[in-house]
Amino acid sequence: MNSARLQATLIAVLGVNLAVYAAAGRLSELLDAAAWFVLLAAFSLEAFAPAFTQRHLLALQWVRAVAMVVVLWAAMHYLAEREWLDALNAWLWIMVVLMLEIELRTSRFRPLLRQLCVMLYTGLILVAGAWLAAGEWFDAYDALLWICAFVVVEQGLGPRSRPV
Fold first, then answer.
1. Which of 54, 74, 140, 147 could bond to 32 as cystine, CB 3.0-4.6 Å?
2. What is the pTM of this model?
3. 79 or 3, which is more confident?
4. For the CA atoms of 70, 73, 78, 82, what is the dihedral angle to 10 degrees?
């Protein structure tokens, strides 16, 4: 299965997870999941459709910016709700996205960014393990699915021939 097809499959499955959060989750979980879904789709489009015009790339940047505002709200809300694993997970993902944003704009720090991402993904795997140990099977499964999806997208990111 090629990367684009795998990414499309992962996005579809994550869409089902989003529906589960819409039906049974807290408002913060729903908004968080929806914003992350939009972010993943935007990164995926940029990674697998490099022929976009500058106007389309700018639109994707705005979509990512709005989604990040929602993600930041949810991360703060998790802290207010004292949902510590959700909060840790959210803040680790925020750091991953910051690394991806930097990677989209320059290849200068690529080795350092890769090392930082490995550490962040390790933290995310540990959070998934904590959910699993706590009997939160759906949260653990969802977390691992998100890790797989972002790793696939990240593999599609490379040094750009034009500035974003």
1. 74
2. 0.83
3. 79
4. -170
